[in-house]
Amino acid sequence: MSDLEDLLARIEQWDAEGNRQAIADAFATRGLDEIAIINVLQLLLVNEKLTAAFSVYEYLAERGLGGANFIVGFAQALKGLLTGDLQMARDGLVIVSFIIDGLSADTRDSIFRSFFLPAVRHPVLLCLVHKREEILLRLLDLFKAADPLMRTTFDFDQPPVAVDIAAMRARGIARQRLLPYEGPPAGTRRSTRRVAVAMPRLYIPTAPASRLNDTGPLICDTMRRYGWQADFHGMEFAPSAQAYLDEFLRIVDFCEAMRADMLVFDDIGVKDPLSHPLRSHFLSLLRQRLPSLTVVGAYLDSWVIPEEILIHAAETVDVVWAYSPSLPVFGHEAFRGKLFTPPLPRGPYADPDRPVPPLPARMVFPGGISEASYHRAFWLAAANWYGLAMDKVVSTHMSDDLDVVDSFRAYCNRLVDSGCVLNLAMRPDHSLPITGRAFEATMNGALLIQEAAPDVDYYFIAGEHYIEFKTFADLRAVADFIAGNREEAEAVRRRGAAFARDRYSGEKVVGYLDEFLYRMGR
Asked: Taking residues 468-476, what's their average pLDDT?
């Protein structure tokens, strides 16, 4: 343990004991100056040691130190917001916003990613766990101080501008980049394939009580209905060399046992450099044992994988399945002729005789809120505070004890019943990926209310197939539109459902893959 690590551990212990004098003595004994103490404060915040961090902040504040420092202002604002000392919070927020606004965009982004997001993650998640919406809305003020984009998105003083659906449709048509997909000629099938599908077994791999991940079973179910033989292998993840090796060898044995001619596998582990030499061994062993095997790497969260790693992955598989076509990396030559961009086969799975209800006046949010998507909580808390016509059906992703396909069917039935689905896109790092819910909602007959995201333009047309919003003021306007323009909203719902079912139904997607492979000569 280094001297600094030892000091951090001791500060945490002294804080728990209420021994603030020991903290002061430690700084004096070590001869730490103002900058060094602020560095200690920064490390405590990033490492989620909030109470100890607040003790260090108080040490600085009592001595008039760090008054115009971003880290100190952040700690002051955070402490005030969490404890309800709104004057302290306001003073800290002024410092944070003043400093942030004076920085270049690159410097601001670096601070946001390296310090702000790690430091604020823990208090936000605590608010989610304990359902403290009022504190969550206070924390939103800290996000707005540190992030100009959040100021614009959640400008509660901005009045809503009435939705003009014809104008939205004209803008959507002008910017649409719908991708051309082709299946085999009508009435034909290019091949009969034996497909091994290796996807994570659990939705949350580290939570034994997690619901089963439906991605692999749904791919298999759809491929079987298309006429292929497809079997599922549930992958187990753990970030260790032995765990990666064991899993890769299990996939090799699974492919060999079923004499697979194609493997579709979730390659998300590639983002961990620890897996790279083992992954190379795995792919080499696959090709030795099954020389004609076509390897399809699925990159379902491709926006979280560094570009150089995605390029390396593309160079070692035959097909890259990723539906984030707006990412610049996919213009690299490594993806030429390999990039397959249709969404995963996700239905429709609702009961075919289930009646579609009249369009309701209320939106429904039917998703989850997690460490990777906690911005959704700000939208929902603000909607609740403002009194928007919205219901929340927040998933915990815990097991419902149903067969995985039956569980997904029940979810699809709920989408049918909801009639109007809110889909939120933004991630903490400002990524705006398209999610599976955009396809699931429309295929199951719901009106899609979609947060603006670049990838959506490759799959749907705003105003034609869904209603788009970008800011909270926009969402208020959408709620007013749905309530007051029933026929126009219903027309968007019908067009979106018909388009999605015709273009993205599960068997259509497998047909696109069939034709894609045929044209590759596989």
From this structure: 98
